[in-house]
Amino acid sequence: MTDTLVELERGADGVAVITLCNGKVNSLSKAVLTQLLVIAEQLTIDPPGAVIVTGSERIFAAGADISEFAGPDEARQIGALFVAALNAVAAIPRMVIAAVAGPALGGGCELALACDMRLAADSARFGQPEILLGIIPGGGGTQRLPRLVGPARAKDMILTGRQVAAEEALSIGLVDEVVPRDSLMTRARELAAELARGPVLAQALAKAAIDDGLQVTLAEGLALEQAAFVEVFGTDDARLGVASFLEHGPGKATFTGR
């Protein structure tokens, strides 16, 4: 029987919570990544209103299971699994919020980077310490981190291996909000539930336009936005939202998610 290393809980408020539960340090072993990939694909096929990704109260994830690396062949296999799993998380067509308590290092930091938002407890720490082992990030760190904080800050973190505390992570744009550790999941759930009550199809189209637009030229990105702009007007929520605005003003619509 396969151990459950990644748990999925769907709430009545429309929020799905993915919890890493692989021992004291939540290492991202091949088994963990495989289970994370399966769950992310499930949430893409049958999406909730919003998603939270979290670890334990003391640690988000300490990174890859280094004992599984033996040489280039293993690195190729594990690197491909990291990319597949984290890309699947990023591709979930709803807002994905990382709720980070304690260290998020190496692959753990890369998992947080694959999410759309990062909420950090005041106890959180972020880092890409692979260079201290004589290697480099292999789960997207050299690509997602500079897109978030800029190339100079990303090179500082990746080439030195230094860790940044929650407040510094906030100041450089690595995280979006810092809260007391005891309030982390309450705040994450509050934000996720608010998003889940919104026009989730419009959110999905906007997320795709932003993510896909960052990979192409401005002109191509604008074309993606226009296509999504036209598509969203075919949803029930667009009709409800526009009618509510005309009758009652902004912010009064009750959306259905269709």
UniProtKB/TrEMBL annotation:
GO molecular function ontology, one term from the record: hydro-lyase activity
Protein name per UniProt: Unannotated protein
Residue spans crossing the bilayer: none
GO biological process, one term: fatty acid beta-oxidation
InterPro entries membership: ClpP/crotonase-like_dom_sf (IPR029045), Enoyl-CoA_hyd/isom_CS (IPR018376), Enoyl-CoA_hydra/iso (IPR001753), Enoyl-CoA_hydra_C (IPR014748)
Family: Belongs to the enoyl-CoA hydratase/isomerase family.
Keywords annotated in UniProt: Lipid metabolism, Lyase
PROSITE patterns: ENOYL_COA_HYDRATASE (PS00166)
